[in-house]
Design brief:
3-stranded antiparallel beta sheet, about 800 residues, globular, P4R3-like_central_dom, Serine/threonine-protein phosphatase 4 regulatory subunit 3, 37 helices, protein phosphatase activator activity, ARM-type_fold, EVH1_PP4R3, 7-stranded antiparallel beta sheet
Length: about 800
């Protein structure tokens, strides 16, 4: 088995600052003569080729991230990363790297100071602070170099951040920015870009609060427009934010602090996503405070809106008001969707309070109204909101729909509206339908249903669903399968039917009598199997999967339903129409029949052989159908000879078997007796005396019973050399087999192979009767050997 601990993916950072996957392999460390040192080697798992050969340099800064990632730079613009499948493998390689560099493996970065001597490091630690040059146009280049040189060192970064913060440097820089723009000083603007970008990488909340203030944030964005890599064509981010992006208050926000916070969060998010360049490996962790700034802003916005009861009341009132125009409702729904998406950043207890507030305000009745509208965009946004609610608390949604069914018709129930939107999705790829099907699956999943002392949510909700909703879900299936083949077989319809079948298959697996009653009473399986004639293979396979799940339950109610309606017929027909093609259809059908054979589903085995054997007997490239026929014949044999079946049951039953490892004294003496005491030609088991009577009983009564045994022993002696049984005491002892025998009516009965006994059915039948008439007779079995011993001997 391959060691997955050392399994890695190799990544390199391209010119666009995006990670390229160079392949998957297994990493090792060892001395490489050519590189004159310990190196990391990665060989591809596909062909063993060398994906990476990198010397572990003592001065290279290696960084461990997220427990399974090691990153480093081998050149100025060449960053590498190893992504491990398992944390244990990452830890092993990290220890090797730290061992070469003489570092403690507990650190996450091996070189904290880059290109600094010990003297410089001591000077940094002993100096009180970092002195910044005057904030003047002529000193911008010097300042840009100072910022760039300070970033690699955490200590120098800290000192630089303190100096910028204490001297109010950011506002001075932004004043210079306005001067450079007025003067069209391109060099100065390029230096300011590098300086402001470096200040972002200082990762300090106090600096962000200044930069993102109302009076500074647009100038900060302006500085970041002048990337030297763009030359004389700067970006126009400020134009977009001031002219294109418009803030709309769908419900007037009376709190100016809340309004300012929303503006700020949007702009900072824009800076993170659109303005700042993609961070390199070492810069990514330097922006963690920026991520946190946005995160806490969103939490604060949700909390402030949640506490404003007037705002939420007005929101839901306008959402459900029929007089609200379409454009306004569209804006309201989009706002509510964004509101719910912000809630995903909340801690669990805060998220609970958020959704309880929305529930109390009537979000589910509002969604029911919105989903009934004709506007596709509004319905799409409402679906996204509904998905947040289902993901948070499916029980809350189930409770609502069960309550509303007491007041509303089935057509306007919330779940039926969801099903109808799934069925009527106009997207050629059915993207919306797939999303809605996932929501329905969550709602009908018994695993997330609650059970209390007073009621069981599973029972109540499933009863509701099958009574009020299942007919809506299955309507397209029933409408399209009225004949021998699908009435509509286009791609979009087939995709929809496949989704419905996927949900029905889930119900078969997870629901019990509800789905069973529905399938049998509505003859659903017969309708589903019509789809095996579809020209779309994926739909035919979905139909087969549905039947396979039903058969896999081994439920005789289902089996009788299948046999009564001859529902294997369309399966056999599809198999024969597929011909000799080796494809998924062929494999799926054969696997279904193989399951019936292996699991020995007797009723289905008999049904298949009796009705479809002539069609399937020519299939000889697999042994499945011949195996089914053999199973069927064995069943018939047992039915025709119940005595034989009973005897086999006795042989399988351990209640008639004593511990086979224990020998009675008589048996042990017989085994230990010297074989030489027997004369040549003397049979170990003499021929049975048909006239010998059973002690305590009449001889005539057992005469007929013992006759087949006598004949059997005579045949055994004729086969053996010298006319006697070939099993001698010593041979039996050497073979390791325990000779089991007994005394029946004064006649020694030799060890008898089960295979021999099966061949002689009449003997087997008589042995069974003999056992019934001889209560003191014990039957033994070991290693396929059958024997008898009467108690007391």
């Amino acid at each position: 088995m391959t060691d997955t601990r050392r399994r890695v993916k190799v990544y390199t950072l391209n010119e666009d600052r995006q990670w390229d996957d160079r392949g998957t392999g297994h990493v090792s460390s060892g001395y490489v003569e050519r590189l004159k040192g310990m190196s990391l080697l990665v060989r591809a798992e596909s062909d063993g080729s060398l994906l990476l050969e990198s010397k572990i340099n003592p001065n290279t800064a290696y960084q461990k991230q997220q427990d399974t990632l090691i990153v480093w730079s081998e050149a100025e613009n060449y960053d590498l990363a190893l992504s491990f499948q398992e944390k244990a493998g990452c830890d092993e390689i990290w220890e090797k790297i730290c061992q070469v560099q003489g570092k403690d493996p507990s650190v996450d970065i091996t070189q904290e100071l880059v290109d600094e001597s010990e003297e410089e490091r001591f000077d940094d630690m002993s100096s009180p602070g970092l002195e910044l040059p005057p904030c003047e146009l002529g000193r911008l280049e010097e300042l840009a170099e100072l910022v760039a040189s300070s970033l690699p060192s955490p200590l120098r970064r800290e000192k630089l951040a303190l100096a910028v913060e204490n001297e109010g440097y950011i506002r001075k820089l932004l004043e210079l920015f306005r001067q450079c723009e007025d003067l069209e000083n391109a060099d100065g603007l390029h230096h300011l870009y590098e300086i402001v970008k470096g200040i972002f990488l200082l990762n300090r909340t106090a600096l962000f609060e200044v930069m993102f203030s109302e009076e500074c944030i647009m100038d900060v964005i302006g500085c970041l427009e002048h990337d030297p890599a763009l030359g004389a064509s700067p970006r126009r981010h400020r134009d977009f934010l001031t002219k294109t992006a418009r803030f709309k208050e769908v419900i007037p926000i009376g709190d100016p602090e809340l309004r300012a916070k929303i503006h700020q969060t949007y702009r900072v998010q824009y800076i993170q996503d659109m303005v700042l360049p993609t961070p390199s490996v070492f810069e990514e962790n330097m922006l963690s405070t920026l991520h946190s700034f946005i995160f806490f802003n969103k939490v604060e916005i949700v909390g402030m809106l949640q506490d404003d009861e007037k705002f939420l009341t007005d929101l839901f009132a306008q959402l459900t008001d029929e007089a609200t125009d379409d454009d306004k409702r569209h804006e309201l729904v989009n706002f509510l969707k964004e509101f719910c998406s912000f809630s995903q950043t909340l801690q669990p207890q805060n998220r609970d309070a958020f959704f309880k507030t929305l529930s109390n305000m009537g979000i589910l009745p509002a969604l029911e109204v919105i989903l009934g509208m004709d506007d596709v965009q509004v319905r799409s946004a409402a679906t996204d909101i509904f998905s947040y609610l289902v993901e948070y608390s499916p029980s809350m949604v189930r409770e609502f729909v069960m309550q509303e069914c007491q007041q509303n018709d089935d057509d306007i129930l919330l779940i039926n509206l969801i099903i109808e939107h799934m069925i009527c999705d106009t997207d050629p790829e059915l993207g919306g339908a797939v999303q809605l099907m996932g929501l329905l699956r969550t709602l009908v999943d018994p695993e997330n249903m609650l059970a209390t002392a007073n009621k069981t949510e599973k029972t109540e909700f499933l009863s509701f669903f099958y009574k009020h909703c299942m007919h809506v879900l299955s309507a397209p299936l029933l409408a399209n399968t009225t004949e021998d083949k699908p009435s509509k077989d286009d791609f979009q319809t087939s995709q929809l039917l496949a989704l419905i079948l996927e949900l029905l298959t889930f119900c078969v697996e997870h629901h019990t009598y509800h789905i069973k009653n529905y399938v049998i009473n509505k003859d659903i399986l017969r309708r589903v199997l019509v789809l095996t004639a579809s020209r779309h293979a994926f739909l035919a396979l979905c139909a087969l999967r549905f039947m396979r799940r039903i058969i896999g339950l081994k439920d005789e109610f289902y089996n009788r339903y299948i046999m009564r309606n001859f529902l294997f017929e369309p399966v056999v027909k599809a198999f024969l129409n597929n011909g000799t093609r080796y494809n998924l259809m062929n494999s799926a059908i054969i696997e279904m029949f193989e399951y019936v054979r292996v699991e020995d589903v007797k009723s289905l085995t008999a049904h298949i052989v009796e009705n479809y054997w002539k069609s399937l007997e020519g299939v000889d490239y697999v042994q499945t159908f011949k195996g089914l026929k053999l199973r069927y014949e064995q069943q018939k044999e047992r039915q025709d000879n119940p005595k034989l079946d009973s005897m086999r049951s006795i042989l399988r039953n351990h209640r008639f078997r004593r511990d086979a490892r224990t020998l009675d004294d008589d048996e042990e003496m017989w085994f230990n007796a010297d074989e030489d005491e027997l004369e040549d030609g003397e049979a170990v088991v003499p021929p049975s005396d048909s006239k010998a009577g059973k002690p305590g009983g009449g001889a005539g009564e057992d005469e007929d019973l013992m006759d087949p045994i006598s004949k059997f022993m005579e045949r055994k002696k004729r086969r053996s050399r010298g006319g006697c049984v070939s099993f001698t005491r010593r041979a039996l002892r050497r073979s390791g087999k325990l000779s089991l025998w007994g005394l029946c009516s004064g006649i020694k009965v030799s060890s008898m192979s089960c295979a021999d006994s099966v061949a002689d059915q009449s003997l087997y039948s008589n042995l069974r009767e003999l056992l019934l008439k001889t209560p003191r007779l014990t039957v033994y079995r070991r290693d396929g050997i059958l024997g008898f011993l009467e108690a007391g001997h």
